[in-house]
User: What shape does this take?
Amino acid sequence: MRQHVNPLSSFFQLPLEIPPKDELFENSELPIHLDIGSARGKFLLAMAKLQPNRNYLGVEIRQTLVLKAEKERKALGLNNLRFIFCNANVSLEVWLGKMHNQNLDMVSIQFPDPWFKRRHRKRQVLQPSLLLSIANCLKPNSKLFVQSDVLDVINAMTSLIELSHCFDSSGSSEVKFIDESPFPVSTEREKLVLSVGYPVYRSLYIRNDKMIPKLLELEDKYSSLNASMQKKEDNKHL
Ligand SMILES: C[S@@+](CC[C@H](N)C(=O)[O-])C[C@H]1O[C@@H](n2cnc3c(N)ncnc32)[C@H](O)[C@@H]1O
Assistant: This one.
């Protein structure tokens, strides 16, 4: 199995500048979908071809995958799509800050790398600081979609999103997960998981008009929640 990239290693802490939207896309006024952890890019390549009236930005920490995805994008002449090599936790927040209240209307995090050990939790891509940058950037009614085949991973993402109070779930209060992806195309990982019949957990959130909480406040709530979940887990093994 492929070893995940450790996003906390010093090499991946160097900030890289993501160009402004008018340098990324031919028509930068079209609505933008940001996909975090776009891997080899097959999902966004298909989406950009299917929906030329939208822009797509994929960010990915593995540079070789970005180079391959960009090569294919150029060969297909897709000017509504870009792939950028960066660590989303280091370089994305500045770009999102500049996009406040603009035309980014969808953010997706699909099958993020699972980090099972407790001491590795900080390596998970959706951290309080990135979530608040997303929430701060999105206008009300814009969407945040998360999916995973690992229950702990989806639960960590949905708990954090819900603790922020900045998003309303698109499902009913009793049903946390939705059955279908909102997209007409499956990601590479999604296809693999579905082909072997494993479950996929999906949640779609809508940005509400609530103010974003302070980062320290959200970090405190999130670490208390993680600590209480860990305690429950430890008690199960006693
Ligand atoms: C399991 S793959 C899923 C890829 C794709 N979203 C899919 O569903 O097929 C997770 C991807 O996220 C990338 N990734 C992990 N941490 C990242 C980070 N901090 N910034 C950007 N990309 C990251 C990994 O390199 C990997 O390509």
Observations:
- Helices lie at 21-24, 42-50, 63-76, 88-98, 128-137, 151-164, 188-195, 215-236.
- The chain has a mean pLDDT of 92.
- The first strand starts at residue 32 and ends at 36.
